[in-house]
Design brief:
single chain, 182 residues, mainly alpha, Rna Polymerase Sigma Factor, Chain: A, Arc Repressor Mutant, subunit A, 8 helices, globular, transcription
């Protein structure tokens, strides 16, 4: 971070190389949108890092948790904007139709269940969805998730329990044979 704060572009490139794909996967799954939209979020994350690297405090967060906090905040902002657009009727179509139920050409069991799981994740309350995706996609532990979300480890554990329960119920209701970890 010191190298980035000093204006060394190669340091930012290394950070992008190390964390770009994980952040993109998190943003895509959190937003339920296209890869391009997720990449826009990640580009904004790294632009923020470039501008604010000097403000990074290693005593308050790890680089990874700082990056995911920036991404989470941006995803929340986009979610709020999209909700407002839908409310006023300006955004009736989903950003990525491939995230809806599978069409006739891809009705194989695995893809159908993946689509159901994806829908179930998108239907979770935003904090549960964020905790679950930070655990599953970013592979952060409970303490790191707590840092990203600005809450306690106990709260994160409860969010994960509720998210998994809701996802299991969603899959069971849909008739899926998928078994989720406890």
């Amino acid at each position: 971070m010191l190298a980035i704060a000093a204006g060394r572009q190669h340091a930012l490139a290394q950070l992008v190389e190390r964390h770009g794909e994980g952040l993109t996967a998190f943003a895509r799954r959190y937003l339920g949108s296209s890869r391009e939209d997720a990449e826009d979020v990640v580009q904004e994350v790294f632009w923020t890092v470039w501008r604010k690297a000097a403000h990074f405090d290693p005593d308050r967060a790890q680089v990874t948790t700082w990056l995911y906090r920036i991404a989470a905040n941006r995803c929340i902002d986009i979610g709020r904007r999209n909700a407002l657009l839908r409310f006023v009727g300006l955004d009736a179509m989903p950003a990525d139709p491939s995230l809806d139920e599978p069409d006739a050409e891809v009705r194989v069991s695995g893809r159908s269940e993946l689509s159901l799981a994806r829908k179930g994740i998108l239907d979770l309350p935003r904090r549960q969805r964020m905790a679950l995706l930070l655990r599953a996609v970013a592979d952060l532990d409970v303490a790191e998730i707590a840092q990203v979300m600005g809450t306690t480890g106990g709260s994160v554990e409860q969010l994960l329990v509720r998210a998994r329960r809701a996802l299991r119920e969603h899959m069971a209701k849909a008739g899926s044979g998928v078994r989720l970890r406890q």
